[in-house]
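Session log. Operator J.P. requested a structure for one protein chain; no other inputs attached. Running the standard single-chain path with token output.
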Amino acid sequence: MSDYTVRALRPDETRTASELFRAALHVPPLKDEDWTYAGRMYQPGRTLGAFDSELIGTARSFDAELTVPGGKRLPVAAVTGVGVRADRTRRGVLSQLMRTQLADFAERGVPLAALYASEGPIYGRFGYGVSTLAHDHEIDPRRVTLRPEVPAGGEIETLGLKAALERLPEIYAGLPHPRPGAMTRPPYWWPAFERHMREEDKPPVTIVHSGPDGVDGFAVYSVQRKSWREPAVLDVIGLHAANDEAFAGLWRYLLSVDLVDVIRAEGRPVDEPTALLCTDYRVVKTTAVTDDLWLRLVDVPAALAAREYEGEPVVLEVADTLLEDNSGRYRVGQDGVSRTEAPAELRLGVDALAMLYLGAWPASALVTAGRVQAADPDAVARADRLFATRPSAWCGTHF
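Structure written below.
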């Protein structure tokens, strides 16, 4: 028996939860002026606390929607703010928080949960798997020459801080987000963005691209230089474009910003063609390949049935030790998804299923790594085709 309880926090307890979480990350608590923005990140009823005589652990979430292959948007619980007090770690507190949270998602009928992992080994134990990947790029803009056929046109507008904070939620919501893994940004996401924009000594710059039909893309960036003897670095904080002209127009602007020595663009889609804009492909260096979004299928049959497939069917046997109703065999194909008693062709845990779900990993790679067990080699090839997605999966909304 544990000597602590887990329950939803009251609104007056969320600041204590914030302090505990930030202490777990080894960062100081928020100042009063920061809490003006941060307090609005907490969706009522979505923050859990573990208590003995006082708060010893916390986890929160907010409701959003996630694009799945085929373009449908599913409800997703965006999990964040997970932390346990340093003197109470490794006593099952995190496990109980995660189990309670997943049970709540299942009870409310939320088919998916997602998070960004601070540590890689933790969340696979609770059924989360790496479902999207991202590239970090570094560019020397002084060496860049754009190819003559790069799309041109449209107008760039620079927004001040106040205008950016007012307009970006509507602009982001109005853009198409066709990539699997793309997430909506509800009101509980934007306060963290606002706090980040306001806490910089020099606020980041927002640029908006407009084409014939109006606004079709935006980027947010900051330029940092420690001294005039050191390189000036332009960090691309975010870039979203609805079409080729907007993508090219935003990069044309960023590559032409004066007095910049290095451009860093972190967490970009793995198939984003930034380097193809340039006459010298090598000026855009990929400095890292990172895990992006971690996904958890809370309702396996509902999640599997919601996405599209192409190719011949395959029978999966899924194991889920935390949400046992998910366990069983599923026939998955372009004509639909159903439970079945047919022999399993592929066996996998719910965490590996999350890695397949958005197409970031082919089934064959997971078989090679031992994450999926195959009874029939032909089924592996069928699953590769069945779960493949284009364009590549990417979230691009950190939380």
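Operator note: The longest strand covers residues 55-67.
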